[in-house]
Amino acid sequence: MTFEELGIHDDLLDAIDYMGFKEATPIQEQAIPVILDGSDLIACAQTGTGKTAAFLLPILDLIADLPGGETSTLIVVPTRELAMQIDQQVQGIGYTMGIHSIALYGGRDGDEWGQQRTALTKGADIIVATPGKLISHLNLGYVKFDTIKFLILDEADRMLDIGFYDDLVKIISYLPKERQNLMFSATMAPKIRTLASQVLSDPKEINIAMSKPAEGVLQAAYLIYNKQKNGLVAHLISENPDYTSILIFCSTKRATTELARVLKRKKFAAEAISSDLEQSDRESVLLGFRSKRIRILVATDVMSRGIDVKDINLVVNYDVPNDAEDYVHRVGRTARAETTGVALTLVNEDDMYKFHQIEELIEREVFKIPMPDHLGVGPEWKAPNKRKGNKKGSFHKYKKGGGEHKHRNTYKKKR
Q: Exposed (0-12), middle (13-18) or buried (19+): which is 310, by Cβ within 10 Å?
């Protein structure tokens, strides 16, 4: 469907057309009418499906005719990067309509704290906040949320994973009872159901493409020993000069720093990003990555959701994520908006079972690429023995076929 068919405000249609959006994605097509109708909503949609616009567009439509100078909408998100991204999208889409927003998140200086306080007391149309920073303002007693009409919890499952449940409950206690509530999550775990039952009133429910990487992602894996990882990463970067934007995920902050240091020594344009960086440094690194000045970004999972960086050619899972769902979010950083991309995972002996769980989640076997000759042979793949009655999931070894394939040709970008 087109956005015009969905009944979007004419001023919004002009902004959408200017940004190059023509047709609604499935989550937008299903969510926008529900939100415009005034119903509460719980929506499950993975990253890269257009869910931010799925709630921003109808909310902007609904608040277009409200009195100015009042805060009507509160959007709560898990990370500062996502808060910044949504704030930028509000400013881009709502500019011609005179709709204003402000993002509240940690790591900013005293002057910005003052700007945040002014917005909270004098009213910005939309507040986008991380729970911790918003609680800091609420504790000082000057925040008035009596005009809030819309509450949006974005990446709700990630907020619960981080441990923001109590903060969310406290924030909600400051809001009017009569309001429209929207909850967006990439997963529908039991804890999300519990939170939804406490926040939402007779909600509609939408599930879109749950737990599946985008069709445009070419997925593959290397079976590898830890000592071979740095050499393989350097090889992949060197052998693919046409990949101008590469995102590498490590499971720990220390690993991101060490890998970025290794890549810099090899004269690659690489930087690490994690929650250890000051906010100004994180923003500088992200800007460099978006502008292609930084070719390689080495990141923790803080980057796996909510970061709008276009045209990422290659995602490398330096470590297999502990949560199978996180694999989907990491991989979702490439092949966004119907483009194509490559996602490669380095699987050591200890991570084989976790990777098998990922394959079960995405309902496909990921091709195992032979190691480049100069790096030596990696470990053999071990898969669970599927014999009936084997409840412990013991393993047996077998050699993957297709060893005659050239390793480069198996992951070259689709033309």
A: exposed
What gap in Å lies between CA 225 and CA 389, rounded to an integer? 32
406 band by pLDDT with thresholds 50, 70 and 90? very low
| 92-133: pLDDT as tens digits | 888 778 888 999 987 655 567 877 888 888 878 999 999 999
In the chain, what are the domains?
10-208 (3.40.50.300), 217-397 (3.40.50.300)
Does residue 255 carry a pLDDT above 80? yes
Residue 325's Cα: distance from chain center in Å? 11
Rounded to the nearest 10°, the torsion over CA 384, 386, 392, 396 is -40
Region class of 155: left (phi > 0), else alpha (psi between -120 and 50), else beta:
left
CB atoms within 10 A of CB 23: 10
* DSSP structure class, residue 23: B
For residue 103, the cross-strand partners are: 128
Category of 399 on φ-ψ map: left (φ > 0), alpha (ψ -120 to 50) or beta: beta
Q: Helix crossing, 229-238 with 253-265: angle to 10°?
A: 50
Whole-angstrom distance, CA of residue 74 vs CA of residue 93: 17
Question: Angle formed by the axes of helices 165-173 and 131-138, to 10°?
Answer: 40
Q: Which amino acid is at 205?
A: E
At 230 the three-state DSSP class reads helix
Q: Sheet harboring 367-369: ordered strands across? A: 270-273, 296-299, 246-249, 314-317, 341-347, 217-223, 367-369
